Structure prediction request, 50 residues.
Amino acid sequence: KNVYCPSIFDFHKASGVLGYFVNFGKWARTMRRTSLVARLILKPSNPQEF
Prediction:
């Protein structure tokens, strides 16, 4: 039991870090898509700003 505990903890920590990076990637992709859509919406209404 004593030897088993750290490996479970390390696996949990690694999966947490992996999940953080996956969530960050999703968030970055969503932000990029949102800014792209916002640019497409804003471009026709005021072309002099772009």
